[in-house]
Structure formats: C-alpha cells, structure tokens
Amino acid sequence: MIDGIRHIIFDLGGVLLNLDYNLTENAFVSGGMSNFGELYSQLRQTPVFDDFETGRIGKDEFIDTLKKHCDMGEEDICVAWNAMLLDFPLRRLQLLQQLRLHYDLVLLSNTNEIHEEAFNEILMRTHGIPNIGVFFDKVYLSHRIGQRKPSAGVFQMILDDTGFKPEQTLFIDDSPQHIEGAKVLGIQTIWLEKGMTIEDTIFLRKDIKKGE
C-alpha cells in the first residue's frame, strides 16, 4: 500500500485524535444555540469558523460572535467547543513512534487556538506528553499558517517547505474533499473512511518499512 513512500502527512482529528462532532452540537443546543447545526458542520463552514481556523480572527472575537447566538458565557462556550475532542489511543501514538524511525512525519490540521490548547491538554493528561509536535518533524496548523485544507496551496506550501517529492509523499485524512486537494499536486492519498483506523487498517507491523 505504501511502496515508494518516504514522507507521510497526517491529519489530526478523526485520524489520530478521536472526535464526536455531535457532542459539540448537543452542548451548544443545550446552551440555547438551536441553529448550531446550520452554522457548523464537518464539511461546510460559515465564515466565522473559517476565519477562526485560518487565524484571521482570534479567540476573543470568535467567542463574542458565538455569544450573540446563545446564552452561554466564555468558559461554557470553550467547554462546548472542545466537547468534540475525545482521546488519543495509545496504539496510535506508539505507531507514530515506530513510523518516525522510517519516514518523515508531518502533521497538517485544520484547527484553531482553542482546540490546540485542548488537544495538547488531553495528550498531557492522558499520556504525559506535552504536545503533539513531539511525534512529528513538522507541524502545520491552519490557524498558525493562515491556510486550510482542501486548498491545494497548503499542500504546495508543505512541499516547498520540506522539499518532499509529491510522488514519495502520502497524505492521510478522513475528509474526502481534503484528499482531493492533495491529489491535484500528485501526492499519494488514503481516505480514512468511517470504521477505518491507521493502526488496524493501514499500517500493519510487517508493512511499516515498505517505503525504504
């Protein structure tokens, strides 16, 4: 499956970090935002979420915008927003450690400053690891780089920054539209469909060194 691959770009949520978007929607609905499902979905976002994920607005402006649609305070909004973030299975983290012995590993995530703080806190609390960056050679978070998937530009930026050749690069993501953005540049891709995991479906122990 990964013959000829020397570099792997991983998505975060849904690939390394388990997510449940319904938990965040339910939390906001309980807080009085009955139309949250219209404001946010995994596949299509309104400008405020896009702006937050690309760093065009910060945490305070994002929270102030959400306050207009519900009766929640800042702390409750952050708790609700982070409700979707579940856990990092230990086997996935161990797999990253194994893969890093044989491949260049890069993280590319559409995320925001509230979630970045929260998922690193989860990692520290559950595994004693200070931040997700310890598993990667490079980390590209959308709110820090000002670009987000599925734009081909964000993948081109990574290729330019790292010097990776697209035909030797594998991108793994659970969103089909993000996969298409990488394919445009000739990057090899795997769409992690529902029910698939990197540890049980893609990387079997005997396959880890295939790219060498």
Question: Can you describe this structure?
Answer:
43% of the residues lie in helices and 11% in strands. The protein is an alpha/beta fold and 212 residues long. It has 2 domains: 7-18 and 87-207, Rossmann fold; 21-82, Orthogonal Bundle (DNA polymerase, domain 1). The longest helix has 15 residues, at 113-127. It is globular, with a radius of gyration of 17 Å. The mean pLDDT is 92.
Structural class: alpha/beta
Give helix and strand order, one letter per element, not per position. EHHHHHHEHEHHEHEH
Straight-line distance between termini: 13 Å
Shape: globular
Strand adjacency order, main sheet: 3-2-1-4-5
Q: Beta-sheet strand percentage?
A: 5-15%
Describe the secondary-structure layout:
Elements: E1 7-10, H1 21-30, H2 36-39, H3 47-53, H4 59-67, H5 74-82, H6 90-99, E2 104-109, H7 113-127, E3 138-141, H8 142-145, H9 152-162, E4 169-173, H10 176-183, E5 188-191, H11 198-202
Parallel strand pairs: 1-2, 1-4, 2-3, 4-5
Short descriptors:
five-stranded parallel β-sheet; 5 strands; DNA polymerase, domain 1; 212 residues; Rossmann fold; single chain; alpha/beta; 11 helices
